[in-house]
């Protein structure tokens, strides 16, 4: 017998810029992460609700992690590069040099982060116009989108930034420009965060009515007049300079990028589910929601026809999966909220020392501690008298109210580790109840959702996953590769290389299911009651605010 000569495996590089770190992965054509590296990046908070970064710091981190993951690999087998990033705003001058987005004039701080809420006044005025483009963002624009931030710059940094600016990039597009020298924008970024529509392009009347008519005059050169579909090849691939920076050969295909959450959606939502006894088997992909849970959380649902969901972003055509409409729900603070609640508790030092002594993470230790104190009860039932409203950073979906505040009901004078574990549990439950609120709003508008696909850092926490299954009543699918966002970015690179005919084909081959977590239906009555209390909390908050403001 003659053995067939094996075809060398093809590789793709996925680069993901999150809020606090940059990560890269070398991913093979079957969706397996072969190598992985990460590097922290700096965040400045010069005043409350102002969050800034440096594009130079971010690019340097991209180069560092990419060189690590491709080290020792035959470069001829690396076929493409894909980027994803947070939807932060990058400002450069006409020579592509960084421009300060702050009153201090610090040019290296040229990025307004996605979670920056400085433009509250601007977004209120934009929403007051009730312009028709707002119907594609759930009826109300978020302060986290780019038009209010641009208006803030014009009104507050007219001379130092606005008049000198040559280009305003969404961070994913800045990265593809840095790699290729081409200023083309991704359909994902401009549709989801800038009000571009896939059928009509930019709407001149919107920019004029909000006071940014300057952008119309130069035919939108500053914000993008060349738009590519995610995964489409950009320019002639890596420039010599970028290739040297990244440790890759010149000319390797570079894909039009995605926002990080959308890359996560791409990495999980199209996976083959045969043999797992899931309700979405033999159902269209529209029966699934991809939930990307990290610092914040995003809930990605697709549909064959446009569905307008109050308080949920979209519908956006082809912004994630080509040919399908995308709705995007979200929670502005999830991982960040859990961290805030746990680290701010008086018993945190005790937790830290006990977790270190047991060689476990603080969250693994807390999960074990909850198992110790539950006695005969299911863990979730420990919060019968403790309830949290999780909007410590405002509500993105479905209430679109950034003025909402967090709430905790049921506190006692106890200050020990038991109480820390309980508030941790109640916070995770509140996040899951918020997800249920978003899913019910999407379903009421016309979505038919029966399965959740989770990825991101919080999906590594079994308590977080089980609470989402129990509270929503839907099975949760975890991908084989925990780093689904990086797999999604690599899928883009695979498409740009021409190795796959479509994103759908790459999604099916490279997205793999790991574990399925089923809901415990015996707990339904308890969580229905928790949900009823959850909705009452926001009613009470609005009621007492009305009293105080009367």
From TrEMBL:
Gene3D superfamilies: 1.20.58.2240, 3.30.420.40. GO terms for molecular function: D-ribulokinase activity. GO terms for cellular component: cytoplasm. Keywords: Kinase, Transferase. CDD domains: ASKHA_NBD_FGGY_D-RBK. Residues 290-496 form the Carbohydrate kinase FGGY C-terminal domain. The keyword Transferase applies. Belongs to the FGGY kinase family. This is FGGY carbohydrate kinase domain-containing protein. It comes from Oceanodroma tethys (Wedge-rumped storm-petrel).
